[in-house]
Amino acid sequence: MITILSDHTEVGERLNKKLRDGKIETEFISLTDLDVGPCYSCGGCTDKTYGQCIHRDDADIILPKLMKTDVLVMVNPVKWGSYSFKMKRVFDKCAVIGDRHYYCKKGELVKGKIGRVHTLVAIGVKDQWKNDEKSAFKNLVVENIKIMNIKGSVYMVDDSNLNVCLESVVEGLNQ
Hints:
Number of helices: 5
Radius of gyration: 16 Å
Largest sheet: 5 strands, parallel
Oligomer: single chain
Order of helices and strands: EHEHEHEEEHEH
Structural class: alpha/beta
Strand content: 25-35%
Helix content: 25-40%
Shape: globular
């Protein structure tokens, strides 16, 4: 199962259609109308309500779906070389579905996992990319992939390469 978590409706919906046309099972979650609050780093999910955030919001809708997915595809507009505001909040809250124990792998601290996610695909969308912003976004995603101890890839979409990029994503997910 592939879950598309999208804060860029047009690109997310186009990718979802391409995957479904190829008979790939997807779950599409648009962040447009969802309200996800910040992670307060209160530790409640590791103590009081183990595995659940004590701050109730629309993450309660998203997280159970992410627990059942094999591949998470994040589609979001890039601001300052980072995830969008809404995507960052969801990504922070995803920590509750990760293993709370870190260990060392090849000199890096990594987390185990509870859910089935084994691959993260991040698609950054921007009208025009600057090289330093491309580099910052790629480095951010690569670091997240390392910490999560999973496979992953990064794609950067702009108006000039949208169709080619989506075809590359679909091809990569079919392998």
